[in-house]
Structure formats: C-alpha cells, structure tokens
Amino acid sequence: MAGEAQDTNWPLPKFYFMVDWGSQTNIPFQEVSGLDVESQPINYRHGNSPVFSEISMPGIVKNSNVTMKKGVFAKDNSFWDWYAKIKMNTIERQNVVIKLLDEGGNPTMTWTLLNAWPTKISSTDLKSDGSEVAIESIEIAHEGLTIDNS
Question: Does 7 score more than 90 pLDDT?
Fold first, then answer.
C-alpha cells in the first residue's frame, strides 16, 4: 500500500559472480556448482553407557569437488595450462576465490577453495546442426572451503 515502508531485505541473486585463481582475476563463468562441505558422522556406544543407543559425533570433513563451466574463447588455454602442470606427485595448488557480487560489482559473499587443483577437464561437445555457445568445464579438488558473508 502507498506510504508503507518497503522491505529492503531480499535474498541475493545468484547470476552475478566472478572467479579468481592465481594471477587470473575476474574470470567470467557460466556456472559454478559443488560448493558442499560434509562432516561424516561417527556412531559409537561406549561400554558403560546407561543408554541403549549409539552416540553420534562429527568425524572427518569431506569436501566435494567444485565444477566450473565457461565459454570457450580463442587463444584461452587457462584450464589446460593449469592441468598440464600436474606431474607425478607434483601439483600446482592455488587458492580459488568465488565472489557473489551485488549490483555495483562489489562482493557480498565469498567462497575460498584452499589448495585447489584440477582433477578433470571436459571440452565442449561439437554438433554440426547446433547453434549453442561452446562450453568447457573444469572439476577442482580442494582441501577446505571457507565462506565470508560480510
């Protein structure tokens, strides 16, 4: 109704984001998925417990691999260059920063993947009768996920 105070607290839209890794900043991606963290439960019952049921406690933290998809550009081999640095027992690990941006391009929420490295790269599929943009994807393993929601 007219004259009432408007609610200014809205959920964040998820379509405006950028990704940084290493010396590359503001890489435009089409999609980022797999920002999951899970604690594996440990169920046990100690011997002198008066309760006849198990107790659950948090165990090892399991991080999901993160998948990122972007358009293919001429002379852009950033995925392949990073993947090519994997040798026997040698990996170039980098922190990957994913930023959800507001209307002004300022980060509102930031996910940081610690010690990340590529595990899989998928090139685009090719179709002679298609008119879609060529999309490539990279799957990244990491050793921890931190979130800053300031």
Answer: no
